[in-house]
Amino acid sequence: MTGKSAPLRVGLVGYGLAGSVFHAPLIAATDGLVLDTVVTSNPERQEQARAEHGAGLRLAARPEELWARAGELDLIVLASPNKTHVPLATDALRAGLPVVVDKPIAGTAAEARTLAALADEKNLLLSVFQNRRWDNDFLTLQQLVTDGALGDVWRFESRFERWRPRPKGGWRESGDPEEIGGLLYDLGSHVVDQALVLFGPAASVYAESDVRRAGAEADDDTFIAITHANGVRSHLYVSATTAQLGPRFRVLGSEAGYVKYGLDPQEAALREGERPQPGKPWGVEPEEMWGRVGAGESPATGGGTPLPTADGAYPAYYAAIAAALRDGAPNPVPATQAAAALDVLEAARRSARDAVVVTL
Q1: Pairing with 330, which of 47, 68, 212, 323 sits 20 to 30 Å away (CA)?
Q2: Closest CA to 216 of 181, 244, 252
Q3: Which helix (H) or strand (E) holds 293?
Q4: How far is residue 193's CA from residue 198's CA, in Å, rounded to a whole number?
Q5: Is 1 helix (H, G, I), strand (E, B) or coil?
Q6: pTM, two decimal places
Q7: pLDDT by residue (tens digit) across 317-351?
Q8: Which of 131, 104, 132, 351 is nearest to 248 (CA)?
Q9: 3-state secondary structure string across 119-176
Q10: What is the pLDDT of residues 81-97, one digit of tens each?
Q11: Contact 340/113 with Cβ under 8 angstroms?
Q12: What pLDDT was estimated at residue 2?
């Protein structure tokens, strides 16, 4: 690893949507990290990476090129297709390199725990990019729950819905089980992770999962019900077939409820080429998008009190990674937490297939 003053050198595997829109910009914006190498065999993506991150950026066609010069790197980030996460993370850890893996870390909880055990054996960081823990609405809700502003939370409704009536194709929508595609493992990884962070372990899981669109191969309309060990019930919806979008969050407690519409603005900003910069606003939401807190009133007709939404904070993830590698600070998303979410996703898949409630 480089000395204390030099930035940590990052090798990024994959420069599709995840690599180019999320990981590379956030790495480049993080004090103490430098994007050293991008791995992609696609000439157009190689040219894009150089244009976006400078002529000094190194390029590689295959991940194996990174393992061959592991001593020149301090962190590997995997933004490659889901089916490659386990083998590539295994290779990186065996090469002596800390690893960040995009979600889902693996197709099964057992694979995730095997990777976690390998990282422990090698005394290396293994973290999962669950960026939506730093969504503006989630940070706001987390503070409400922590402060007890809603009383005892009884029901948590979370929706990640889109209207995409025609499949886009590609591995994310593939029906091949090896690809680990479909919304259950894609958007479902986010909503399940958020529910577990807020309300703790799952005791049982029920799910409904459908393939609705003509030509679709993988689930595109899925519902997950979690009964948490503490009695909170989470109802989670992920869909590409929602012609009328519901609230992102509807949280009901013994004293009040919180209703929030709309998505965190950070992804849209990153897609449009905006970048986090020190001292400049980031993840800020306009007042008309704020959620509302109240009891016995309808937010749809202006009821409840508007609550300012916290600023979104995706840059905080990689800042925490840098601190973990430099100073031994806590891993922001340990692989064991991702494994717990995969327990729920596997249970949901079984529940939807067999029409049963699965006890964990």
Answers
A1: 68
A2: 181
A3: strand 291-294
A4: 9
A5: coil
A6: 0.95
A7: 999 999 999 999 999 999 999 999 999 999 999 99
A8: 132
A9: HHHHCCCEEEECHHHHCHHHHHHHHHHHHCCCCCEEEEEEEEECECCCCCCCHHHCCC
A10: 999 999 999 999 999 99
A11: no
A12: 57
Number of residues that make up the chain: 360
> Is 119 exposed, middle or buried (CB count within 10 Å of its CB: 0-12, 13-18, 19+)?
buried
Tokens of 321: 């990674």
Three-state secondary structure along 197-232? Answer: HHHCCEEEEEEEEECCCCCCCCCCEEEEEEEECCCC
Residue 255 half-sphere exposure, CB side, CA atoms within 13 Å? 8
Crossing angle of helices 109-122 and 335-354, rounded to 10°: 170
User: How would you label 227-239 residue by residue, b for 16+ Cβ within 10 Å and e otherwise?
Assistant: bbeeebbbbbbbb
Q: What is the distance between the alpha carbons of residues 204 and 196, in angstroms, rounded to a whole number?
A: 12
- Residue 9 CA to residue 141 CA, distance in Å, equals 35
Place of tokens 């029920």: 206
Centroid of chain to Cα 98: 19
Structure-token pair, residue 187: 């958007």
CA atoms of 82 and 246, how far apart (whole Å): 28
How far from 15 is each of 39, 40, 152, CA to CA, in Å?
7, 6, 43
Distance of CA 290 to the CA centre of its chain: 22
